[in-house]
Each structure stands twice: as C-alpha cells, then as structure tokens.
Amino acid sequence: MDRVIYLHPQAPSKPPEYAVCNGCGVCCASEPCPLGRVLSRRASGPCRALLWDEGRHRYVCGALARPEQQLPRGLRWAAPWLARAARRMIAAGVGCDSSVLAQPQH
C-alpha cells in the first residue's frame, strides 16, 4: 500500500537500509518506534517526537535532542534518563533500520 509522508524540503534523501543514519526522517515520519509510540500516544502515523533541526538540516529524535520537551512538566526531572534510554532504544548511531521505500513527490 502506498502512503504519502511529508518531510521538510531540505531533508536528506533516505539512505539504504543499514547505512549510516543521515537524519532523513523517513522512519519516524512513517511510524513511531516503540519509544515513539509511548511519547506520541499512538501506534501509527508520524512520531510526535520527530523534530526538524534547522541548523543541521536534518531530523532528530526529540527524546534525544530535547527530552524535557517530550515529558509532562512534573516529569521533566527524568529528561536525562529519557535521553540515555532513547539512545539505546532507537540504536542511535547504529544505522538505518527502515525498510520503507521513499520517493520524492513529482
């Protein structure tokens, strides 16, 4: 089934599966990971923790880049824990784990 996801026009193209992550955002825009399901409170659609980093022209995981913004005010003390847990849960820096076939819209 074809599905359309919308990404920032300056987002890099999706790398091949298992290649180094380049912040294209395709994986998180297509569906949230297990941590993203908790943070987004949904099992499908784009992850609400997906953030565009204007300075680096790439997407980042909000649980890593701005963990305090992903937590309710009363739990923001746990932001450092969330960032550490997120790094492990999403395998940050390991490589692209998305098998989604992405094509630019013509």
Structure description:
By secondary structure, this protein is α+β, with helices and mostly antiparallel strands. The protein has a domain at 26-89. It has helices at 26-30, 34-40, 62-65, 67-70, 79-89, and strands spanning 50-53, 58-61. It has a two-stranded antiparallel sheet. The longest helix has 11 residues, at 79-89. The mean pLDDT is 90. It comes from Caldimonas mangrovi. This is 4Fe-4S ferredoxin-type domain-containing protein.
Give the termini separation.
18 Å
Give the neighbour order of strands across the main sheet.
1-2
Low-pLDDT stretches: none
**What kind of sheet is the major sheet?**
2 strands, antiparallel
The 3D shape can be described as globular
How much of the polypeptide forms β-strand, as a percent range? 5-15%
Gyration radius, to the nearest Å?
A: 14 Å
Number of strands: 2
Helix residue percentage? 25-40%
Residue-averaged pLDDT? 90
* Category by helix and strand content: alpha+beta
Number of helices: 5
Q: What are the secondary-structure elements, in order, as H or E?
A: HHEEHHH
Organism: Caldimonas mangrovi
Protein name: 4Fe-4S ferredoxin-type domain-containing protein
Brief account:
This is 4Fe-4S ferredoxin-type domain-containing protein. By secondary structure, the protein is of the alpha+beta class. 29% of the residues lie in helices and 8% in strands.
